[in-house]
Amino acid sequence: MPSILIHIQNEDPVLGEVDELPGPSDVLITVKNPRKKDGKDLAYIDPAVTTVIWPFNRINFIEVLPSEEEEDIITFVRE
Predict the structure, then answer these.
(1) What residues are paired with 59 via a beta bridge?
(2) What is the layout of strands, in order, in the sheet containing 59-64?
(3) Fewer CB within 10 Å: C terminus or N terminus of the chain?
């Protein structure tokens, strides 16, 4: 389940997970476990909510965060 950082217009970024990354024809994005980047609850969402659907017209851009497997990959580093 990919983790993403959503940059919503006039809001702080939202961290969450998605089942699939959105495609070019999608108009909505469904995010599970939405929270602030630091892990705290979002003030405008009820704490009991686990899934939120946002329309893309409210989103500036989305960052796809590396998975745990990708973070463990050691690449060549030249010193």
Answers:
(1) 8
(2) 51-55, 28-36, 14-17, 3-8, 59-64
(3) C
CA quadruple 57, 64, 30, 45: dihedral sign: negative
Confidence of residue 1 (pLDDT cuts 50, 70, 90): confident
| Domains of the chain, start order | 3-71 (2.30.30.100)
31-60 pLDDT tens trace: 999 999 999 999 999 989 999 999 999 999
Q: What is the pTM of this model?
A: 0.78
- Residue 18 structure tokens: 């998605």
